[in-house]
Amino acid sequence: MTASRFQTTTLALLVAAIGCTGRDRRTPDDTVVVLISERLSNLDPRYTETAVDVTLSRLVAPGLTSIETPTLAPRLLLAESIKPAGELAVDVVLRPGLRFSDGTPLRAADVVFTYQSMLDPTMKSPLLRNLRDRFTGVEALGERAVRFHLVKPLATIMTDLELGIVSAAAAGPSGRFAGGRIVGAGPYRIESFEAEDVFLRRSRSWSLAPAVQIEKVRIQVVRDANARALMLVGGSADLTQNGIRIDLVDDLAEHPRVEMAKGPSAKLTYIMMNNRDPALRDVRVRQAIAYALDRERALRAKVDGRAVLATGLLPPGHWAYNGAVERYRHDPDRARALLDEAGYRDPDGPGGRPRLRLSYKTSSDQFRVALARVWAAQLAEVGIAVDVQSFEFQTVFTDYKKGTYQLGSMQTGTISEPDWLYAYFNSERIPTAAEPNLLNRWRYSNPRVDELTEGGRRAVDLERRRVYYGEVQAIIARDVPIIPLWHEHNVAVMNVAMAGFELFPSSSLWGLLTAAKGR
């Protein structure tokens, strides 16, 4: 019996045992306990780095717009209107009556403070470069009116204004919030914040739809997937979204205390390759690796159909998606031929010494480690030896940013705007010591991709943007800086007492606003 099968069987037995004893617990009726796998660093929207930081930050400090929609099309939220004011300016009018969670009014000056602090190099926001490329400044035109001055015509303005707004007065002279307790105008306020345990309480100032049903939310970090599952069936937790290993979901869903919901997502799971590595800088080696992987078999065996195979960063169905690109179906013979061309010939025949040896760094999450071992076994079949190394997430994430890796694996945040192609593949977005949080962690550089991604963010016409991004996707598929695996479904496992929780493609927790708890 494999370790993975043993763990699955053990979990099933433990789940059954809990069901038989009847000695389960129950969270308070006015509280939803949400389990996540990664520790939090900062809920201030100006300084969030990870997807989970962003997800929780939006409950406390949402933005002028929101992508919490079934189609990811941005909608107005704190803004009443957004209109161009010439070629290089955009005017935003705030909704009347907005208040922060501390009861103070949200004014144009708070919007200016939020964005100007991110544009201030001394504040060291990880979003500095991104915003500096877009805005030269922000000014208040009155109590409710704000003008954004643009570097150049900007097609992405609706999604750019999704960044959360915080209170200037609550931040104080330093511009930062003490103890992680940021003050925003969202449906929830922070009652207490620790990196692994956060308490939120319904904000009495929230006046927008939908009205909040759940009074309190506790966000608890539990790193072990089995522990998260047992807490759900045991009644000491209410919800986890994408927090249960996909290979364990079916066993868990059979328990009478929990139920499962799933829906599409706009996230990509992928293998990253350091394009500056002596071996991996050769596109033939990267293509060989792509051909050596049997993604379809892994999808069936490990993901159980709860995902859609990917051809690139954008998911099928996205308005800018181009499916007419190079596809790397499992072809070991083609992989070996490409390795031969690249000079990595088989030194002593099948089963002997490898052609090439690479290291694969991944997080210590059991499912991700299991996948890494699958890829290592498949690459071994074409003569590439892979040493799988697992680390605590923050350790491996730091290595990815520094470029101290050869192979690795990650999942993107929500890809709602095709301008993410710029963030992930433009050579200006390669991390540096001064800007370690840029997203081109594979150190990919192609002048044509640079030109096209720049053009796509300037072209306002939708069809022109579609043409730009279509060519970008074709080039990236040919160059293979990363290997797209699949777009995993959003899977929520929750206590049967939960009702009304809505899944969004963004994988957010905005569905908590419509959720309620019964008996």
Task: Describe the 3D structure.
The protein has 16 helices and 21 strands. It folds into 3 domains: about 5-40 and about 180-255 and about 490-515, Periplasmic binding protein-like II (D-Maltodextrin-Binding Protein, domain 2, 3-Layer(aba) Sandwich), CATH 3.40.190; about 60-170, Dipeptide-binding Protein, domain 1 (Alpha-Beta Complex); about 270-490, Dipeptide-binding Protein, Domain 3 (Dipeptide-binding Protein, domain 3), CATH 3.10.105. It has a 6-stranded mixed sheet with strand order 14-18-13-17-15-16, sandwiched between helices. With about 525 residues, it is α+β, with helices and mostly antiparallel strands. The radius of gyration is 24 Å and the shape is globular. The longest helix is centred in the N-terminal third of the chain and has 19 residues, at about 5-20. Helices cover about 30% and strands about 20% of the residues. The model is unreliable at about 1-10 and about 15-25 (pLDDT under 50).
CATH homologous superfamily assignment of the largest domain: Dipeptide-binding Protein, Domain 3
Helix content: 25-40%
Total individual domains:
3
Strand content: 15-25%
Low-pLDDT runs of 5+ residues are 1-10, 17-23
Globally, the shape reads globular
Total DSSP helices: 16
Beta-strand segment tally: 21
Structural class: alpha+beta
The whole-angstrom Rg is 24 Å
The first-to-last residue Cα distance is 40 Å
**Any idea of the CATH topology of the largest domain?**
Dipeptide-binding Protein, domain 3
CATH class of the largest domain: Alpha Beta
Mean residue pLDDT: 91
Largest beta-sheet details: 6 strands, mixed
Strands of the biggest beta sheet: in what spatial order?
14-18-13-17-15-16
CATH architecture annotation name of the largest domain: Roll
